[in-house]
Structures are given as C-alpha cells and as structure tokens.
Fold these 3 entries.
Entry 1:
Amino acid sequence: MTEKRIVVLTGAGISAESGVRTFRDNNGLWEEHAVEDVATPRAWLRDAGVVWRFYQARRRQLLEVEPNGAHVALANLQSKFEHVTLVTQNVDDLHERGGSTEVIHMHGELRTLRCEASGRNEVRMQTQDLADDFLFCTCCELPSRLRPDIVWFGEVPMQMSEIYNAVESCDLFIVVGSSGHVYPAANLVHAANQNGAHTVLVNLEHPINADAFKEIHIGKAGELLPRLVEEWTSNRS
Ligand code: APR
C-alpha cells in the first residue's frame, strides 16, 4: 500500500491552550484591536509605531508560552508518517518548539522581521530586539527599517503553490483550531474534498465551514489530538 500523504492545517485554536489569544473568540485579539489599525499595509503606512508596538508585544509573549499537547501530538504524527505537510496560519513558533519540522507559516512568523528595502527576513529575538524602538536590518549597506514578517490582510499568503500541491495530492486533510473565516486557508478543505481526500476537523466549536468536513471532533485540541494521533499511528512502528 502506498504511504499515506497527510496535510495538516492549524489555526489559532491549537495555540489557545498555550495561552496565545485567538482572533475571533470572546476576548480574542480582534475584540481589542481593529484589524485595519494593526494588521494592514495601510496601517503600517499610516502609523507604523502603533503596528510595531502591537507586534512587539506579541513577539515578547513568545518567551512566556510553551507548546501544548496538540503541538507535540502533531510532531509525533510527523515522526510516524513520511509524508506529512504541516501548514499553519499561526505566526507563533510553538509547532517548532513542540518538535515539528518544516512548518509552512502561510501568514508569516513573529520570530523573524523583514527588511523593508531588500525583503529579506532575519530572526531577531534577542532581548534588545523586543523593546518598542524600531529595528534596522543587517542586510543593507545603509541599514533599513525592519517590518513585522507577517502577511497582513490584503497581502499574499506564503508558499501557496506548495500548499495547494500538497492538498491536491493528499489522502488525509486535517484542520485543527480554525474558524474558517480567512481565505485562502478556509478554501483548502474544499480542494482536499475535490481530490477525494478524507477531511477531518478538530475544533472547540463548529466553524463556518464545518459542513465541508467528513469527520468532526469537537473539543479542545490539547485533549483530542493526542488521542487521535495515538489512534492514527497505533499500527505503525
Ligand atoms: N482547541 C481547539 N480549537 C479551539 C480551541 C482549543 N483549545 N480554542 C479555540 N478554538 C477554536 C475556536 O472555536 C475557533 O473556531 O479555534 C478557532 C480560532 O479561530 P480564529 O480565532 O478565527 O483563528 P484562525 O482561524 O486561526 O484565524 C485565521 O485570521 O486574523 C487572521 O491571520 C489571522 O491567522 C489568522 C487567521
């Protein structure tokens, strides 16, 4: 039997039990911050200081949170199957710290910052990189200001052709902790269904695209995912 090809797409819900706020739950980030004030290119042009301080606070929070059982369960899944593509909408580094490798961050990452002149990104997570002053690149002769390495609303998500290639050829497509509000991520389950993949959802409540999933598990990812991965990998060495 050919090796099963698996694609996992995670959203903010997988990091919720680590203490990272989601976006659209009660007390979510978008309840306190208007998207257009902190997560759009226009916001950056209009008042870069407000945007910068919003992301610096979220970058500092990375030092205070730890991966939870759901992140570790996905790392276990990757270790047991050869073809697991892990795609995340999250910008935290909890998948990597939970043991996952080759994570595709389609909405960017908090750990890295992007040079406004060259577009190159660099990891900047030292103490001196986490204050509220703007930071400057190390790649240009005359250092240029760095911006958050985040895909803002209206910008193009990363590595979409790689993501669609994986989704259109997978046997199993699993979504964990996403409300299905944001495209193109919310469209991936439809692409998986079109290719005949089995589609599984693990989420605290029914998201708006719940009908697209063949199998649904409602509950906390930190509790459900370790058991599900145990089940999916039980007959594998
Ligand atoms: N376990 C499983 N699911 C959970 C948990 C949990 N412990 N806690 C919350 N959830 C679910 C919520 O029910 C919700 O459906 O996770 C989902 C989180 O949805 P959102 O806050 O909308 O986050 P997400 O779907 O990742 O948002 C997508 O929108 O704002 C942009 O770029 C941002 O990447 C983000 C994108």
Note: The chain has two domains: 5-20+66-107+157-234, 21-64+115-150.
Entry 2:
Amino acid sequence: MLDKILVANRGEIACRVMRTARRLGIATVAVYSDADAGALHVAQADAAVRIGPAAARDSYLNAGAVLDAARRTGADAIHPGYGFLSENAGFADACAAAGITFIGPPASAIRAMGDKSEAKARMAAAGVPLVPGYHGADQDPATLQARAAEIGFPVLVKASAGGGGKGMRVVDDAAAFDDALSAAKREAAAAFGDDRVLLEKYLTRPRHVEVQVFADTQGSVLYLFERDCSIQRRHQKVVEEAPAPGLAPQQRRAIGQAAVAAAAAIGYVGAGTVEFLMDEDGAFYFMEMNTRLQVEHPVTEMITGLDLVEWQVRVAGGEPLPMGQDDLAIDGHAIEVRLYAEDPQAGFLPATGTLHHLRLPADDVHVRVDTGVRQGDALTVHYDPMIAKLIVHDRDRLAAIRRLRTALDRTEVVGVATNTGFLQAIAAHPAFAAADLDTRFIERHTADLLPDPGVPGGPVLASAVLGLLLGRRRDAAAAARLSHDPWSPWNVADGWRLNDEATETLALRHAGTVLEVSVRYLRDGTFRIVLPDGAAVHATGEIDADSTLHAVLDGVRGRVTLVRRGREITVLGHAATGTHHFTLVDPIAEAEASGADAGRLTSPMPGRIVAVLATAGQEVAAGTPLVILEAMKMEHTLRAPADGRVTDLPYAVGDQVEDGVPLIGFEPA
Ligand code: MV4
C-alpha cells in the first residue's frame, strides 16, 4: 500500500482523491499555485507545497515543480486527477524515472491512445467496432472521393490529428465533397500542423456512451458498466448518468466486453474510459479512449458502491483488482450535473467573481456533492470554472431525476453567474425524462432550456424590493445603535413624514431592463409596493440570519433566499421562480461609471487575439464582430456595442492580452 500520495491537481478532484487517501490511512500532499494558497484542497492536505504562480502552465502543468514537490515531501506516489498532467506520457515517464509511482496507466498506453488514427488502427486490430470509414495513408483527393462514395453520404471528414470535435466537417453529397475536403485540410493544417484526414459514416443522432474499465498489473481487465454522457455543449459534458438508459442486458455485455478488449489491446493498467458512439439502432462504435479517471466517475461509484480512487491506489500499489466481473452489479440509477460559473444568457461565457453566498445540498444517501470551493472563494479565469458536481442516486432513473431537481432547488450561488437554471431546465424537460437523448439534445431543445429571462413575476420583484427596504431598516437601526444619539430622527429609515405616509420611487435593473416601483411606508411599519404594471402589493416580513426572507405579500406567506450586497440584490426561489439578480439604480453612481469606459471594449479575461475583423476609422453597425479572443479553450467575439466608428485597434492577431485591457477604441454614432 502506498504511504504518501501527492495530488497533482486542484479543486474538487484534489479534495476527492484526498478523501479516499485519508480513509485508507495514506498521507496526502497538496500542491498549489499562488491563486490557490487559501483553497480547500490545501487546507485538507497533511502537507502542501507551492508550485508556482496562478497561470496553470507555470504551476499545475509544471511537471518539474510537481516532481520537486514530491521529492521534497517524500511522496511515493502522484495522483494526477484529470486534465493538467493526467494524460501526459512524458510526465508518467518522469515519475517512473524519479522512482515515484504514477497512479495511472503506463506511458505507452497514454501514447497509444493519444494519436486518434493510431488508436483506431489498434482498435480495429483488436476487433473493437469502428464507425465504417477510411483511415488510410493515401490522401489523394480522388482516392478520398471514391472512398467517401463507398461509405455512403452523409460522410464526416475528420482531421486525423484532431480531437474533441475540432476539425470535423459533415459532407451531405458527392458534389460537395471536393470543396469540403479542401476546407477540412486547410483547417487541419492551420489548427494541428497536419492536414491528414480520415472519413467516417456520419451518424446523425448518436449517443455518447462510455464504459468504465479497470485493469491491474496481473492482466485482469473488468468493465464497471457504462455511462451516458450525450448531453453536452461544445463537447463539454453537462449531464452524465449511469447506467445508460434503455440498454438491454445483452447490449450492456457487448459494449462492456468491447471496452475490455480495447483496454487489453494496449496493455492498459488502472482506471480508463472507452468512449463509443451509439447509433439509433443500438450499434456502437469506438470513438476514443481516455487514459485517466473521468470527471463523471462518481455516477459509476454510486451504482456499483465502489470507490474507484481506492481501486486506483491499490492497483498502483501492485494489488490485484479487488473484485471479479461476476461480483459486479448495477444498483439503481445515478445522475451527475456539473455546476459551472458561466453565464448561459451570455453564450455561456465563463464567469469570474467571488462566491459571496454558496449553499450546496447536504450529502445524504441519495445526494453527493463534490466540490473544491467554499463560500468567499474567488473564481478566476486561470482554471476550469467548475463550482461543484451534484451527483444523485435512487432506485430508478425517474426517482433519480426527482432527487436531482430537489438538489438543484437547494443549490444557491450568489456572486458569479452560474448554469443552475439551465441544469434545472434540463432536469425538468420531458425529453430528458423520456430519455430521448443524443449529442444534439441541447441544440434541439435550446428554446426550452434557455428561455429569455423576461421580466420577473410580481412576487419576485416585490420580494426584492421588500428585501431592500428591510435591509435598509436593519442597517439604519444598526447605525443608530452605534451613533452617539440612538433616538435621533435622522437614524430612522421608515420614511416618516409630517401629516402623511411617505412614498418613494425605486428603480431596479434586471437583465438590462429598468423596473420602476413606488413604495408607500404605512404607519404600521408595513409597505405598499406598486409594481411597474400598476399592481399594488401589501408587503411585510423579516430577513433572518441565514439570508432567508420570510415575506407576507397580500397576506400570503412565502420564503425565498435573498442576498444583498450593496446595490445588488439576488432572489433565489424554487425552480419555478429561478434566480433573479437586481441592481438598485443609483443615478449618481451610474453616471460616474459610464463616463469612465464609454466606447472602450476591454478583454473579458486573459487570452490571445485570434482575429481582428475591423480597421481603425471603420464605421460599423451595432453587433458587428470586431475582435475574437481565444481564452478558456473557447473563442469570445467582441462586438460593436452600438452603431459607430472604430477608432483604435491596439492589438494584432497572436497578441496575448490580460484581463480588462482595452482592445478596441469605439465612438458610438
Ligand atoms: C462523430 C459524430 C457523428 N458521426 N462521428 C465529436 C467529438 C469527437 N469525440 C467525436 N465527435 C463526433 N463524432 C461520426 N461518424 C458526432 C460527434 C459529435 C459528438 C460525439 C460525442 C459527444 C458529443 C458530440 C457532439 C458533436 C458531435
């Protein structure tokens, strides 16, 4: 058994690995960048070593620094988690050379699965089903055209050096093939420096079904059943579940055995995932193999009752697999969703900020929350914007969906935009309940999943206003207690006026719309709020210590979480009401702010300029794309905020820019 494991990762996976290590009585070493000095995974480790500045390339991707930390702390093993160095064959070799156990597969297996074409060739040789296609070395356009015709259109042209959906092009008929091939080769050459392509039959409604495999150093290989990860956005998984809905036992055995054959063919050791495309007719085809523990491994743990990190540790320590294939069985159904700091209403742009309010569902027999953050933590652009994974389990899929909806209802985040509402919409969607899944689920149901935020209903707006008024009253009372004259009338915030009840007009901004309400302070200390549509609401209530607003609106008692920070008010209700952010409009503060950056378009995060689409002096219409920034593995297009003229473009393609730097000078018309 290993003695001390250094976890070469951060966030929820680092906390998760250390949780198992502690349970097994193994010492843990965390590594951290300057941005993570106060992070949860550092606090939970027995020892911690700083490995560099915030940027991942200088810290968590710095193999030398990680190995040095292992040597300095006497760690006899390194767990890479996922991402970062987890599929870096050179790092696996370096660990071996340093006499440190790499908790993962041999470097040779990582290399074998790293090249997509080589991987497919080896899978074909091992009898693992591949999508009908052509992976040959002859790249003559005439040959490719002929092979495409044999495959039958529609055909997918894929960059051999590509992956993750990059460099793919669908060709619907023979007439379009030549142009599409030329474009695909140009893109592949530009993106990967290698213009080789492969051809495949295009599956029009595939599901992404992956199989968890495990192999030990004595040659045993098992499958731990499958996961359906079809609900993805831009090749980023959003919802994962186990087992895959609707598979017959024979199919389950067949895809499991195919995955075992794939792992055995490359001499695999440790935890691995073999990804397949499953067609509507139930046929499955090898897509790729991931030589690491996956983000979504908890759903497999929940249906098998196993701890996959414990298996990793034991296998890395030379032990045989703890169970045989016939000992494994599926119990119930599990679903995982990834709670991200991103703004679905802004094209899922990663969100940064501070987690001023963070309330996640409590763990119980049906709910597991894996997280690496705490209330008060800052989320930066340096790393993946994951806040937590919510994993639920129950006896069957519909019961698990109900658990998921409840868990999402109990998820409250204020301080950064999140995808909570988007996840709730998926969990509530009839197509999800019907397991009508394929990789274009989100694309097909976008209108339902991303409705316009719209103007919030009366109770939500009234609650926000009531929260503001009660907060002001509480702040005034606190100030009075601190002042030299607690009973001074200047310390009262009840709008008292001689001979009449006071009234006040408030303006709140919600999703870009300013909502005006008027408030009448009634003699009994309650309020009469008139909403923008003219409806009047009698309101009273109180806010308790944990930000719960107990409101009585027109005699109806209700409860929402209400978080106020200065002029920002967030109302978090149930799925039906969702989360609504309001900003109290302060005309003076807004006038000061708007003068500062009018017409400047600044970089939303550190990144690299990949396109400049305008020239200084050019007149453009509102919404015209001007600059494209690449950051966080995504492209972000900065557009003209209004009709006007571009006055300055200080950066060129290829320039690295920091967060907040002005990228475009712009004069509104
Ligand atoms: C395909 C396909 C349809 N037909 N191959 C996308 C990324 C890479 N893993 C393979 N991908 C696909 N390959 C054939 N012959 C559709 C996809 C695909 C996809 C696959 C799995 C999960 C999400 C996806 C999203 C878009 C396209």
Note: Residues 131, 156, 164-165, 200-203, 206, 208, 232, 235, 277, 287-288, 439 surround MV4 (CB under 6 Å).
Entry 3:
Amino acid sequence: MKFSLKLLVAGAALACGLAAHAAPIVIKYSHVVADVTPKGKAALKFKELVEKNLQGKVEVQVFPNSQLFGDGKEMEALLLGDVQIIAPSLAKFGKYTPKLQIFDLPFLFDDIAAVDRFQASPEGQSLLTSMSKKGIMGFGYLHNGMKQLSANTKLLTPADAKGLKFRIQASDVLEAQFKAVGANPQKISFSEVYQALQTGVVDGTENPWSNTYSKKFHEVQKYIVESDHGVLDYMVIANAKWWAGLPPDVQKGLKAAMDESIAYGNKAAFQEALTFRDKVIADKKAEVLPLTKEQKLAWRTAMKPVWQKFEGEIGKNLIDAAQRANGK
Ligand code: LMR
C-alpha cells in the first residue's frame, strides 16, 4: 500500500514536470517583404509580444523575404497547415473572395487615411470574415501604402504606358487596370520582380515606397511617377481550423499581441512612407517625378472604367462605402 502510494506520488510529480516542460506551440509567420517594411515590423513585433506574454507556451518564427514560401504558395501552405500566419496583399485574395478586389480599384481611395476609414467601417470589417467558409480567418488589416508607377520611360500620361509590359500582383483588377491604358500586364511573384525589371522581362511595375526601396526596384527603373493611383495593404490571416483548436488562454494572448502588432505596423506605415520616398530620391538611381493635377486626372479617367467592369463581383454597396471614406 505504502509502496503504491509512493509510486502514485512519483508518477504525478513526473507528469507535472513534463507538463511544465511541454513543448511550446510553434507559430510560423511567413511573408515576402523585408523586415524594415511595415509588414516586416509588425511580424517581428508580434513575435516579441507573444514571447513575452505567453512565455514558454508559444514560440513565433518569422520568415521574411519569401524565405519559406513565395506569394504563389503561401496561401496553399496556410490551408495545409505548413504555416500558421501570413499577411498577403489584398490583391492576392481574388481566388478566395471577389469582394476584396475592391482594394485594387484604381483611384478609388484618395489616400491611406481614407483606406483606413473604409477598413474600420462596418463594410470593411465584414470583409475580415468573408473567407471563413474557405477556412481562412482574418485578424485585421495592415497598411503598406499608396502605389507609385515606375518604368524606364516617363509615365506622365496614360499614353506613355501604351505597349509597355508591367509586372503586376496576381489580381484580375490590376490586369484590367493596365489593359485600360493599352499596356501588357504580367502576373509575377514578388520575389522575381527585381530580376524581371533588371533583365527587361517587364518594363515597369507599381509598388509602395517601402517595397521599392527595400527591394531596390528603383535601381533598375529610370523613372517613378508619384501617381498614388492605388493602395497596397494586407490582411493578416490564420487557418481557421488551427485557430479554433488552440486553448482559450493562448487565443486570448495571441489576439492581444496581434492587435498591438497591427497597430504598430500601421503607425510605421503612416510615419515612414515619406521617409522611404526620400531615401529613393536621395539614392539618385531613379528620378522621382511629380504629376500635375491634370496629368493625374488623365490617368484617373483612363483607368476608372475598371470600376464598372468589377462592380458586379465586388458589390456596389462596398464601392459606395469606400467612396464615402474619402475626403472626410
Ligand atoms: C507585391 O507582390 O508587390 C506585394 O504584394 C508584396 C508585399 O507583400 O508587399
């Protein structure tokens, strides 16, 4: 009797010891941009906060620069459980929900503050759960910034783009946008853009300042026009089934860390967009050209028919809500 009690106590102590040293839950957070960009910073902040608040319980591994998965594969990897968190550009969700195509409509948003207001609106928030049937849950939106057009020729008017090849993200709206000005768009993974520009596979591209600078696109493009013609933002997402299987206290800690990391990345996006622009200018590799009001209006007029083409898929109510977010 005495012996078995001792055994029981020893067994319980061993079990407690094992529980205390249980392997942490490992979260792989994969993305395609550099650590210095808003998305790169948000991912590292998430790691820092999680490992502080859920010490020993959760380990976060961040893989930037398409190290783990490029943008053609990361969604598939998320759904297969090979990675737990990703933050694709909103342009890359077309296959999963046509509604998110709204963010690619050219000249829909006046600036990033308008994008922010739309994302915070009931219509914007509803899009975070628009892919739940596909097994994807959205934590929130993360900003990068407004896109600029670049090429080896000056893109001052829409006619200047005619016949040129442009690299685009995997988005049918962006394809239509460049076709609207007589250009030839090509869907190419982010990790291949520098080489495509350098070797002349394409003549130009569009990206926000932080991506242009951190990936050195300005070193292989002669001119960048300050077109601000569209937005490049992200949704931070997880595999819904994986999330549902986490213990409630871990979910709570992760959600709090995610909210704080997104706020941190968004603040950086607002504060640093112009810093990256200035760095591109200071490098003197590409010439940065402002557009006059008239030139910008000509681009807008040429690209705007794209809205109508996608209105049926996106929904007029969403487009109206986005326009209401302008000029407040
Ligand atoms: C791109 O492919 O240009 C962007 O979506 C990359 C990114 O994640 O910012």
Note: The two ends are 79 Å apart (CA to CA).
